[in-house]
Each structure stands twice: as C-alpha cells, then as structure tokens.
Amino acid sequence: MKRVLIVEDEQNIREFEVINLKRGGYQCVEAGSGEEALALFDRDKQGFDIALLDITMPGMDGFTLCKELRRRSPELGIIMLTARTQEMDKVSGLMLGADDYITKPFSPTELTARVDSLYRRIEVHHTSSRRGATEEIRHGEFVLNLRRRTLHKSGQHIELTQVEFQIIEYFFANPDTPLDRTDILSRVWGEEYFGEEKIVDVNVRRLRMKVEDDPSNPRHLVTVWGMGYKWCTEH
Fold first, then answer.
1. pLDDT digits (tens, 9 = 90+) for 129-185
2. Kind and range of the H or E run holding 15
3. Distance, first Cα to last Cα, the chain
4. Is the dihedral of CA 214, 162, 196, 48 positive or negative?
5. Rounded Cα distance, 229 and 171, in Å
6. What is the distance between the alpha carbons of residues 76 and 61, in angstroms, rounded to a whole number?
7. Which residues 6+ apart lie within 8 Å of 24 measured at CB?
8. Could you check whether the bond before residue 74 is cis, i.e. omega within 30 degrees of 0?
C-alpha cells in the first residue's frame, strides 16, 4: 500500500487532501500538528512513502518538521505546501531536504499528480536497489555505488536524499558534459512534471554543500552559464 503522512492544522484542507489521495489509491495517516506527526512517524511500523507538510502551523512548523523527518529518513519523499506569496519558503523547504512543493491554492488534479510523480521516483529508487547491480561509478575521490545507492568522497559517506542521488547519478553518467536544466528536470522529476526549473537550482546548491570543499567556489559541480550544470572530472 502506498502510504502518505498528511500534516495540516486546518481540518478542511486536511480532509480535502485525504479524500483526493485516497481516490488515487493512497493510504493516508493524518496529523494536525508537527509534534503529532513526528510522534506518529516514530511509532509507525509500516513506514511512509511520502509526507505532505504544511509550512505554517502552530508549534513545530513545517520547516522544523521537514528537517526532523529528513534526519530520520533520507529516502522519505517530502512535499511542502506553500502560499503563493511565500517564494523564499519554497527555497527554504528545498534546502532543508524537501523533494517538491505545491503552491496553495491547488486543485485535486495537481495534488494527485505531484504525489504520483514523487512516488514513481521513489519506486525507481527502490527498484534499482533491488536489482542486485554491483557496478560503481568512480570519478577521482568520489565513488557512486548504484546498488547500495550511496556516494562516498575519499572514503567518507555522504548522506543523500533519493532526489539528490538521482541528480548525481545523471551527472556521473555524463561527466564533463553540460546538462541543461530542462534535461535534468525531465530526467529526475519526470517529463510530466509541471513545476518550476528553479527546483533544479536549489537541489544543485544543496548538493554543492555536501560534495564541495568550498561550495561558494565549486570545483566539481559547476555552472554552465546560460544552460545548466556539469560535473567536472579534471582540474
């Protein structure tokens, strides 16, 4: 069963999300606060595929909850709900480890489509892990293990979300090749994704903080102005 943790303090919005996601075949677990959601997550034995988090909640807000959930599970899919005017909230949520965001108000179609898209990416991640492939991709001090879905730098493990891993995998498969933002978006988020390209930029920024010695002066994950990014293997 596809399981979603829905965290929203406004009951009418939470009920709207539950009704539509149940129609889409998801089992929904509800929480009216960040504290309740974290307690449910910690007690749960079945595991969640996706967490849908409102940002503005009394007590523990969505940002704090996102950070705590990501700390507990790199593989959990996280979608933040933001208001149309909260541009910085979108960036902040992604930098804390969210995989996507939905801007309020949203339609049932958009809600289901975005959750479906993230769930498909998670399934690809799990399927690849179960295939039993043993191959690795090595670039200098970096080793990407395609079976374990892990990245190491000089022997040190780098914790990646499933979206970050997919981005790095795409770069490693195309070293020293400029990759367009649109191509990265289609490859990682899917051709049917109808969000904004800036989600690529924020995830690259987040990756630089993990893989670069000096993120403000990247040596590996570099910008190709007017196009996108590339992974450099020679310096």
1. 555 555 889 999 999 988 778 899 999 999 998 889 999 999 999 999 999 999 999
2. helix 11-23
3. 48
4. negative
5. 9
6. 18
7. 112, 115, 116
8. no
Which of 18, 21, 26, 28 is CA-nearest to residue 1? 26
Phi and psi at 218, nearest 5°, equal: -65, 140
Instruction: Name the pairing type of β-strands 50-54 and 2-7.
Output: parallel
What is the length of the chain? 235
The reported pLDDT for the residue numbered 197 is 84
Under 8 Å between Cβ of 65 and 34:
yes
With residue 185 as reference, give the H or E element that holds it. helix 181-189
Token reading at 59: 């007590």
Distance in angstroms (rounded) separating the CA atoms of residues 23 and 235: 52
Contact call for residues 55 and 81 (beta carbons, < 8 A): yes
229 DSSP 8-state letter: E
Give the distance between the most distant pair of CA atoms in the chain.
Answer: 55
103 band by pLDDT with thresholds 50, 70 and 90: confident
Scan for tokens 């490859």, then name that residue.
187
190, HSE (Cβ side, Cα atoms, 13 Å): 18
124 CB neighbour count, 10 Å cutoff: 14
Contact status, residue 66 vs residue 53, Cβ threshold 8 Å: yes
